[in-house]
Structures are given as structure tokens and as C-alpha cells.
């Protein structure tokens, strides 16, 4: 289940790409399939081990183009272990809402992106997230959970100003190139979960809706694809923002 549109990001075979906060690797795997040189970066060593193993399996199965490379790297989003201007594309999906110093994380993303490179940032959308928080404190109070709700204006401002420093000095500016919303079918599922208990997987309504989502992901029926296209702009659970780092003078 992808959140980022890689065509809109401008991803091409041979691009060096960072998936910052890769988690279980869903975006990393697709970028690898498209021939990119991928680094899956995360704080969780166990998650990264699973990602590494699947990278190896994909290559052995011939699922990636000749010359494509992929690896994992563990570390802190506030101190990325990469050189300045190292990556052509960066994906940061559903990460910043977990980080206390999000401005510092944004500065690091911009630092390691080359001039002319592109960045996709996704976070939970304001309205669906507000409803989740109102319905259940457990939804966001869990360890490692969401600590803020972004408006589009707030996050666009933080990224385009390059992550403003503590003294008010803006960092390296970015160009905003557009936004979209996705996973419209998923927002009602989380409203149900928050209403009946986020850990209550046995509730009949939650179980039934979960089966619907599994059907959507695995079979991609046209009826649910159409429903998603209708619901995405209205209640899409995720907001996707696209940015470009200005070319060097």
C-alpha cells in the first residue's frame, strides 16, 4: 500500500534514494523494483533486518533491474549519517508526526538532498487525525505514537523555510510543488477502531472493515479503486506534499 506517487516525485532508474523512516519497507521495495539505488533508513534494527532480507530475496528472484542496489542503515533522523547533497530523491512517509524536533529532522532531509532533487513528505491529514484524537486518547498516547497534528500550511511552511532554526533564522529554502491526499478508505477504519478501542481487533465492525481493506490491497477491485478516488480528496487519511530543492546558483 503505497502513499507516495513516484511518477510525481520524478523517480528514475539509477537515482540514489533515501527512504527515511522506512519501517517495514513498503516504499523502499517499490523504488528498488523501479531500478533505484535505495537506502532504507530507520531507528528500528529489527524492522531493518526484515527489509534487508526481502531486498536479498527480490534480487535473487530477478524482481529488480540489472544494476539496481539496495541496503539498510540504522540511525537517528536528527543526525543522518550521510554526506551533504547525497540523494536524488527522498521519501519521508508517516514519520514527522512522531518526532519531537521535527524542524531538525526537516533540516537534515534537506541537507542530504542534492540541488534539483525532490522530496515527498507524508503525514496524517488534519481532519481524519483530529477525529481519531477526539475519539480515543489511546490512539496517540501510545509509546512512539503521534505527538502532533499538522495542517498543510504548517508543514509546507516548515519545509519551504528549510526548517527554521531556534533563533528564528530560516534554513535552506525548498520549493513546494504540490499536494495530494490518499487512503480515503482507511480513515473510517481508524474512526471505528478509535470508537470501539484501538486494541479491540475482535469487534465485529472492526473485523468486517479490516477484511474490506485487505480485499482492497490484495485484489484491487475496480469498485474500491473508484471509491478510493472519490474519498481521497474528501477524507483521505494521508496528506502527501512534494518539494524540490533549488538548483545551485
UniProtKB/TrEMBL annotation:
<dbReference type="GO" id="GO:0008168">
    <property type="term" value="F:methyltransferase activity"/>
</dbReference>
<dbReference type="Pfam" id="PF08241">
    <property type="entry name" value="Methyltransf_11"/>
</dbReference>
<dbReference type="GO" id="GO:0032259">
    <property type="term" value="P:methylation"/>
</dbReference>
<keyword id="KW-0808">Transferase</keyword>
<dbReference type="InterPro" id="IPR029063">
    <property type="entry name" value="SAM-dependent_MTases_sf"/>
</dbReference>
<dbReference type="InterPro" id="IPR013216">
    <property type="entry name" value="Methyltransf_11"/>
</dbReference>
<feature type="domain" description="Methyltransferase type 11">
    <location>
        <begin position="18"/>
        <end position="120"/>
    </location>
</feature>
<keyword id="KW-0489">Methyltransferase</keyword>
<protein>
    <submittedName>
        <fullName>Class I SAM-dependent methyltransferase</fullName>
        <ecNumber>2.1.1.-</ecNumber>
    </submittedName>
</protein>
Amino acid at each position: 500500500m503505497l502513499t507516495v506517487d513516484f511518477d510525481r516525485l520524478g523517480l528514475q532508474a539509477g537515482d540514489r534514494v533515501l527512504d527515511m523512516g522506512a519501517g517495514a519497507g513498503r516504499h523502499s521495495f517499490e523504488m528498488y523494483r523501479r531500478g533505484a539505488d535505495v537506502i532504507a533508513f530507520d531507528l528500528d534494527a529489527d524492522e531493518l533486518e526484515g527489509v534487508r532480507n526481502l531486498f536479498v530475496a527480490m534480487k535473487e528472484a530477478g524482481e529488480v533491474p540489472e544494476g539496481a542496489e539496495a541496503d539498510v542503515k540504522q540511525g537517528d533522523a536528527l543526525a543522518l549519517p550521510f554526506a551533504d547533497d547525497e540523494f536524488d530523491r527522498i521519501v519521508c512517509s508517516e514519520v514527522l508526526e512522531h518526532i519531537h524536533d521535527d524542524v531538525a529532522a526537516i533540516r537534515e532531509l534537506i541537507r542530504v538532498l542534492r540541488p534539483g532533487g525532490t522530496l515527498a513528505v507524508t503525514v496524517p491529514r488534519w481532519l481524519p487525525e483530529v477525529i481519531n484524537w477526539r475519539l480515543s486518547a489511546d490512539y496517540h498516547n501510545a509509546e512512539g505514537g503521534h505527538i502532533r497534528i499538522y495542517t498543510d500550511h504548517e508543514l509546507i511552511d516548515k519545509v519551504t523555510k528549510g526548517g527554521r532554526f531556534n533563533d528564528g533564522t530560516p534554513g535552506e529554502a525548498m520549493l513546494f510543488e504540490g499536494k495530494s491526499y490518499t487512503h480515503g478508505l482507511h480513515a473510517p477504519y481508524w474512526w471505528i477502531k478509535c470508537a470501539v478501542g484501538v486494541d479491540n481487533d475482535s469487534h465485529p465492525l472492526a473485523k468486517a472493515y479490516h477484511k474490506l481493506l485487505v480485499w482492497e490491497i490484495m485484489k484491487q477491485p475496480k469498485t474500491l479503486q473508484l471509491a478510493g478516488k472519490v474519498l481521497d480528496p474528501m477524507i483521505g487519511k494521508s496528506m502527501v506534499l512534494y518539494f524540490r530543492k533549488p538548483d545551485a546558483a
